[in-house]
Amino acid sequence: MRYPNIVPAVFLSRPNRFVAQVLLDGQAVTVHVKNTGRCRELLLPGAKVWLTHSDNPNRKTAYDLVAVEKGARLINMDAQAPNKVFGEWAAAGGFVPGLTLLKPECRHGDSRFDFYWEAGRRRGFVEVKGVTLERDGAVYFPDAPTERGIKHLRGLAACLEEGYEGAVCFVIQMAQADFFAPNDLTHPAFGQALRQAAQAGVTVLARCCTVTPDSLTMAQAIPLRL
Questions:
Q1: Which pLDDT tens digit goes with each residue over 15-51?
Q2: What digits encode the pLDDT tens for the residues 55-105?
Q3: Pairing relation of β-strands 27-33 and 63-70?
Q4: Could you tell me which of 114, 123, 177, 173 has the C-alpha nearest to residue 149?
């Protein structure tokens, strides 16, 4: 996926989870943050960030904050990007060979999953999670407690009993990482649910991305430490 009209800026502050103050061309500007997560280790005063300009004249903010530099790493932090990247990757044959249907936002039981897919006689559901939390070269999810994430994992496991396949794909929104692991320090219940889902037969994927200021593309798989 690609972003139009990308420009650099300097992060100043985040008054709330929806907006940030940045320094753009020497002026303080309010921009929309496309990620309502905490991102405390990313959005630090003085960090270089990347903005995409919207052509919609009715918006309250003219720019969206979509990426940030953390040391030598460029990290995409657009919460909507992982689903788009997964969709492009799956449609190109990266997920399941012979894919004949990929339908976003499908409800099954009491859960709404990111994708439903079919390939011949195979059919299944996928939940996609974006990962921006990096520590010492490894990446973790979630960066804040997520009861919704636990519900998705349990729903995927339940789908297996009905003959569907189930998968959760962690899209690492940066280029390199040593391994992926659940963030047991922040939300041990999610880690437990992920391990239980994997034991039940839910496929767990973790893949890094090729990241530039104006693009995000699915790249290599990395090891799991569940």
A1: 998 999 999 999 999 999 999 888 889 999 999 999 9
A2: 888 889 999 999 999 999 999 999 999 999 999 999 999 999 999 999 999
A3: parallel
A4: 114
**How many angstroms separate the CA atoms of 189 and 192, rounded?**
5
Query: And the tokens for 65?
Result: 């904050």
pTM of the predicted model, to two decimals? Answer: 0.95
CA distance 62 to 30: 8
Question: In angstroms, what CA-CA distances link 225 with 46, 95, 117, 189, 198?
Answer: 33, 21, 27, 16, 12
Count of other CB atoms within 10 angstroms of residue 141: 25
CA distance 21 to 223: 37
Encoding tokens for residue 130? 């974006």
φ/ψ (deg, to 5) at 87? -60, -45
Residue holding tokens 């979509």?
Answer: 66
Q: Are the CB atoms for 146 and 36 separated by under 8 Å? A: no
Which residues, other chains included, contact 173 with Cβ-Cβ below 8 Å and sequence gap of 6+? 75, 76, 77, 78, 81, 82, 130, 131, 132, 209, 211, 216
